[in-house]
Amino acid sequence: MTKKLFGFLLLSVISLAVFAAGHKPADIPMVHLQDKTKYACNPDGVLSDAAIARIDSTLSWLEANKGIQTILVVVRKMENEDSFSFALELAQLHKPGHKEKNTGLVILLSTEDRQYTILTGRGLEGTLPDAICKRIENRYMLPYLKEGNWDDAMIATVEAIKKYTEGDKELHGFTNSPAEGDDDGLMPMILVLFIGGILVAAGYYAKRQRKRCPKCGKYDFNMINETFIGTVVRNGARYKHYRRCYVCKNCNHTVFKDDYDRDEDDFIGRSGGPIIFGFGRGFGRGFGGGSSWGSGGFSGGSFSGGSFGGGGASGRF
After folding, report:
1. How far is 148 from 178, CA to CA, in rounded Å?
2. Alpha carbon 309 to its chain's center
3. Starting from the edge strand earliest in sequence, which strands make up the sheet with 254-262, in order?
4. pLDDT digits over 121-138, tens only?
5. Predicted pLDDT of residue 61
6. Can you tell me the distance from the alpha carbon of 60 to that of 93, in angstroms, rounded to the nearest whole number?
């Protein structure tokens, strides 16, 4: 019993020591890297789920429409007790913002250290200069912080930033590219179009080859007669068997062929649907139900290499 009590107390002391030491920038889990729709890092559970949802929605709009990539972090305590240094280290570590435009943004709140920082990338310093960042903090963030209302402080801050950036016509949303890992919707469509193009070309080639005379090589081979032989089943699919007579208009060469045409009334798929372009059941199912499409989940995002020069504002409350 004494050993168990001692072990419990030791574990409690260690946990308290870790908690008291505070967070390091490298220890903050970047939720955006796991889910591209998430931006608010809330490792200590300071913010409510409802607040996080509103914050993520606003920051998602900023990235989609203005190209502003944001890291928002709310912790109880920092290890170095300096919000500006903490935010700058976060920015240098993860590099939010487009590499060429440098439109990254870091918003930090440490509730027990009673400090906050808004840090802007080099490309945002014209839209959000230091004075504007300070104004946002004083007008929208501080009143709620003094009340201990962390949720509304962060919500009001990101919504104020949105209002200030809406009028800047120079800011544009990111252009999706494979390097940025945001091509989830584009690449499958390109793949489908590519495969479709191959199928159309293959079908045209096959149809043209059927008109080529094996004797003279001219494309004047035409069917003049066909006889229905019967129905056959192959690999679970039903085909109609025809014997057809082909004659070349150029050299009168005659050929009889046994052709098997897919029965259009046959559906594999009483659980799946008809065969499409000869790819069969697998193709029909894959296109309709598929891997990442319609699965209900979101893939991880990425940061795009933005740089920071120290613009923004910090304060205490």
Report:
1. 42
2. 29
3. 221-234, 237-248, 254-262
4. 999 999 999 999 999 999
5. 96
6. 21
Cβ distance 66 to 168 under 8 Å?
yes
- The pTM of the full predicted model, rounded to 2 decimals, is 0.58
CA distances from residue 314 to 85, 143, 182, 303 in whole angstroms, order as listed: 10, 15, 32, 23
Structure confidence by residue, pLDDT tens digits, 143-181 = 999 999 999 999 999 999 999 999 887 777 654 444 444
CATH of domain 13-181+300-316: 3.10.310.50
Q: In the chain, what are the domain boundaries? A: 13-181+300-316, 198-266
**258-295: per-residue pLDDT in tens?**
888 877 665 544 444 444 444 443 333 333 333 333 34
The pLDDT, as a whole number, for residue 68 is 96
First-to-last alpha carbon distance for the chain, in angstroms, is 46
Contacts of 249-255 with C-beta under 8 Å, sequence gap 24+, read 249/218, 249/220, 249/222, 250/213, 250/216, 250/218, 250/220, 251/213, 251/215, 251/216, 251/218, 253/213, 253/214, 253/215, 253/216, 255/214, 255/221
- Helix axis angle for 49-66 and 150-166, nearest 10°, is 10
Task: Grade residue 252 by pLDDT with cuts at 50, 70 and 90.
Answer: confident
Residue 275 dihedral angles phi and psi, to the nearest 5°? -70, 135
Distances, alpha carbon 256 to alpha carbons 72, 149, 184, 221, 245, in Å: 74, 86, 50, 12, 5
**Both tokens assigned to 50:** 């409802």
Position of tokens 């290499």? Answer: 305
